[in-house]
Amino acid sequence: MDKLEITYLLNSGFFVRLGDVGIVFDDYQDPTGAVDAALPELSELYIFASHAHFDHFNPAIRRYEGNAKYFFLSSDIRLLPAAKQMPESKTIWLDTYDSYEDNGICVTSYDSTDAGTSFLVEKNGWRIFHAGDFNWWHWEGDTEENNGFARNGFKKQMKRLEGLEADVAFFPVDGRLGAAQPYGAKEFCARTETKALVTMHSVGYPRWKPSDDFFLPGKEIPVWSPVESGERRLLIPGGGFTE
């Protein structure tokens, strides 16, 4: 199994390398040009966008048309005028709970508690989960009714994800949520079989660290919380993150 190399782009954007295979998630911005710099070394490139929000889908990803095998896009993006710019022959539109398997890649989509989908990607022996905007969105100052609705929606979707196995999960730990910042990730790690966690969707906030009681006993896993575009880590099978 190849080592898995992860480069932080921005917000929820990440570039994952498995040897000469590249997987790009939610490339809203790539200030350090990490993806472009790697293109000559890649034999396969797959581009994902979890939903239509501007900080997750940028139609400029079409510039990879000549390199990408497929663009996997959440179906809500089709409602945007910019969706017409995407190459029809290479674009796979995914609704929630869809699946696609071809040419050595398997993709399963799940629901979100905000917009669009989340993804489980299986490639080269790795299982990679990207949550998109799926999270427990508990906002300080919001009404008890709204926060109750958010909690129930999150827990309903977690029933679908119960026992999910992933070598690494990209999951929001959003600083705007204040004390509720880790709620979603904590529940996700407790109820799935995730081996490593990468936090996202917290631009402008300090590097997050899990509290002593974040993990259930015996379920501690490596955590990486990037803050600067271009930060890079290796995830070693059965190990942790190394620079």
TrEMBL record:
<protein>
    <submittedName>
        <fullName>L-ascorbate metabolism protein UlaG, beta-lactamase superfamily</fullName>
    </submittedName>
</protein>
<dbReference type="InterPro" id="IPR036866">
    <property type="entry name" value="RibonucZ/Hydroxyglut_hydro"/>
</dbReference>
